Amino acid sequence: MADEARIGAARSTRSLGWAIVLFLVLPITIVVPVSLTDQRYLSLPQDGLSLRHYVNLFSSAEWLSSIAQSFVIALGAATISVVTGTLCAIGCWRIGSRWSELVRVLMLVPIIVPTIVYALGLYRLWVQLDLLDSYFGVMLAHGVTGIPYVVVIVSTSLASFDPRLEQAARNLGASVPYALRRVILPGIMPGVISGAIFAFIHSWDELVLVLFIASRTIFTLPRRIWDGINEHLDPTMAAVAAVLVVITGLLLLLDMRARRRAAE
Amino acid sequence: MTAHAEAGVLSGRRPFFRDQWNAYWLMVAPAALLMAAFYFYPLVQVLWISVTEPSPGLDNYAQLFTNLSIRRTLVTTARICVVTTAITVVLGYVVAYVLVHASPRAQRWLFLGVLVPLWISVLVRAFAWVTLLAREGLINHALRDAGLIDQPLALIWNELGITIGMVHYMIPYAVLPLYASMRDIDARTVSAARGLGATRLYAFRRVFLPQSLPGIIGATVLVFIFSLGFFVTPAILGGGKTLMVAEFISLQILDLLRWGLGTMLATSLVLFIFLLLAALARVVDLKRLFGAG
């Protein structure tokens, strides 16, 4: 069938498709050569490569503290999202009634509603709860908005998990928590790990909410980059971008390995 | 269900079914409560503020029709979103088409190319476009060194820059639903049309294209909706000169403290999106589109 189908894709179409995919990837990779420039402004290296922008980055207290803050917040947020989101997905999957279906549909709302809209309400609520500009406030906001993604990803895993395995465990005398820990969770672990990585990146990358609920104390990495782009564009920014691209690449590899192990 | 419960009673054990039922709702509870308290409650508050501040009533909403800067922002937003969606869906269609027809090896590479950008920070992507498109950016430099231009081209801080950045951001979101619908098309229908004498183009237009229509609609909805409320890329590549609605809202709140106006626009945006989805709910499987299918 594949051979017959390939008749349909003319060579020109195929080249166009590949060109578009290159258009997706190449502009991002430009940050790597720019980060190695020997000039003081954003440019390609001219007389040779230089690591001085990386030296700048890793000797800058501001950038380092932002990286540390983002990491701590993303870790906390991902924990909130993964624990509650996974439990929710499993609960909905087992209940399988109209009500649990409603919960899952409501979970799509945060994916559809633009973040800017939620940011306004969040700001007002955080004023009332005195959570503005605090680690916990940002973690909670990121954790809550990460839940839907975890639910969606874990639910996908559960769809291919045989419910009879859990029933068997329960019939053999396992309690609900025991069956959860020893039967369901191991079975859907790749999905949970994917969900965790996604929730981590969701927080690590999040800018709009932080713009609203953070001021002096909390200066996450996205906010630092945002300030940098708007105020002083210099190659240190490219170094940051290159580091982020590499970290994301490593996380993706991790995710791919988890999936491959699941497939085996 | 009742059979299970009866079995429990008959075997002399506690009817465990209800306990089990409660245990599963207990698992749903933390997420549901967190979402209710910290997501849906503040969201409803936005709607509430829009009809109570500065004074109760629909005064804020009247500005949708009277305020010139709002109208300009909405027109700009609509124009950019329509153009972006059109370009994105066409390009995404080509990629999905090539993906479906590629060998497994080529498919892996194409998929990697489509998915990797999704995972890269949106700020990094916007920054990359700034280095490329800016007045003193790499593209203008290269063109000037090649002697093709005297004056730098205005590629950024206008609608062109925003559109380039947004198309780049949105293509993966278009490819995924398009690919999913094309995968379901039986390739033999196209072969049959070709065997019956149809030209390649004719077979595509009359056989393949109509069957991929659900994917086209899905991708269009997804991209258009994500574009409407998009903040980061338009704000950076628009450079404060071209305002789309999300950035306009944030300006109203963070710089001008006009809560009534900001929340009114935010509420209108959400209502518009949900009306759009409701209108399309018959044509597209929304749950599948947003990942929960």
Provide a brief overview of the structure:
The complex is a heterodimer of chains A (264) and B (293). Chain A is mainly α.
Structural features:
heterodimer, A: 264 residues, mainly alpha, MetI-like fold, 14 helices, globular, B: 293 residues, 2 domains, 78% helix, disordered N terminus
Topology record:
The complex is a heterodimer of chains A (264) and B (293).
Chain A: H1 2-6, H2 11-29, H3 31-35, H4 52-58, H5 61-95, H6 98-106, H7 109-112, H8 115-129, H9 135-159, H10 163-171, H11 176-204, H12 208-213, H13 221-231, H14 235-263
Helix pairs in contact in A: 4-14, 5-6, 5-9, 5-11, 5-13, 9-11, 10-11, 11-14
Chain B: H1 2-10, H2 16-52, H3 59-66, H4 68-101, H5 104-119, H6 122-133, H7 138-145, H8 159-183, H9 187-195, H10 200-211, H11 213-228, H12 232-238, H13 245-255, H14 259-280, H15 286-289
Helix pairs in contact in B: 2-14, 3-14, 4-5, 4-8, 4-11, 5-8, 6-8, 6-12, 8-11, 8-12, 9-10, 13-14
In quaternary terms, these chains amount to heterodimer
Summarize the helix and strand pattern of chain A as letters.
HHHHHHHHHHHHHH
Distance N to C terminus of chain A: 26 Å
CATH hierarchy class name of the largest domain in chain B: Mainly Alpha
Radius of gyration based on Cα positions of chain B: 25 Å
* CATH fold-level label of chain A: MetI-like fold
Query: Strand share of the residues of chain A?
Result: under 5%
CATH superfamily of chain A: MetI-like
Q: Report mean pLDDT of chain A, rounded to a whole number.
A: 90
| Structural shape of chain A | globular
Strand content of chain B: under 5%
Written account of the structure:
The complex is a heterodimer of chains A (264) and B (293). With 264 residues, chain A is mostly helical. Chain A has a single domain, classed as MetI-like (MetI-like fold), CATH 1.10.3720. In chain A, 79% of the residues lie in helices and 0% in strands. Chain A starts with a helix and ends with a helix. Chain B is mainly α and 293 residues long. Chain B has two domains: 52 residues, no CATH class; 230 residues, MetI-like (MetI-like fold). In chain B, 78% of the residues lie in helices and 0% in strands. Chain B is globular, with a radius of gyration of 25 Å. The chains are: A mainly alpha (264), B mainly alpha (293). The interface between A and B is large, with 101 and 97 residues.
